[in-house]
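Chapter summary example.
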Amino acid sequence: MLPYRIRPDAEADLNEAYRWYENQREGLGADFSLCFEEALEKVRRNPEIYPLIHKTVRRGLMRRFPYGLFYVVEEETVVVIGVLHARRDPTSWQSR
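The structure predicted for these 96 residues follows.
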């Protein structure tokens, strides 16, 4: 399994989504976090499982929640560059 790094913008995405879901229902934020961890583990085990969406960027989808995990592989490390809602502007991660 490859090591990983989460960029600050992606960490902010995660925190924002966690808080939003937790405000909807107590415990839902924790469920979101678990689904993110599952998606990240899947990517770390097989980073090429998801198709390229732009140059070297890939997007994995989270189970149960409408979020994409945007990542690149740099020097045998999975680098998460964004965790964005599926209805958000799909190019918003490109400035990262």
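To summarize the output: Residues 4-88 form a domain with the YaeB-like fold fold (CATH 3.30.2310.20).
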